Q: What sequence folds into this?
């Protein structure tokens, strides 16, 4: 069964993939186009969420990735939210990235807390999962 946090992060990843196009965000001239920041971050969030949904106990190393992506989105969108010369479309995209990044950050911190709790309950060793077989048994 997929947890609420994994489902939320997957939906947030899908939104990040579609938001620049759904909000009508146009590319900007210059070195940095924030539209692709959203698309790449959305792809990473969606892939991490799917992998974590399929094998949550086998991928505890994946837990810190989501909060890092969420923090990245919050920081990069707030840097782009300078009110001077900003079109409303760019403003909507920046707010969308900031809010979605905050959701990914909170969900990711929950995933990290869950992974640490599992690790502590296991006494710092790998958690034995149903279906694992000992190599030394028949």
A:
């Amino acid at each position: 069964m997929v947890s609420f946090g994994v489902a939320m992060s997957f939906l947030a990843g899908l939104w990040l993939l579609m938001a620049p196009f759904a909000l009508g965000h146009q590319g900007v001239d210059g070195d940095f186009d924030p539209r692709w920041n959203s698309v790449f971050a959305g792809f990473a969030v969606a892939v991490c969420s799917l992998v974590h949904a399929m094998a949550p106990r086998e991928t505890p190393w994946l837990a810190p990735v989501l909060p890092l992506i969420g923090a990245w989105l919050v920081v990069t969108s707030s840097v782009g939210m300078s009110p001077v010369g900003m079109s409303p479309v760019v403003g909507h995209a920046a707010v969308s990235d900031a809010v979605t990044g905050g959701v990914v950050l909170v969900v990711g911190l929950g995933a990290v807390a869950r992974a640490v709790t599992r690790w502590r309950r296991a006494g710092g060793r790998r958690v034995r999962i149903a279906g694992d077989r000992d190599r030394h048994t028949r």
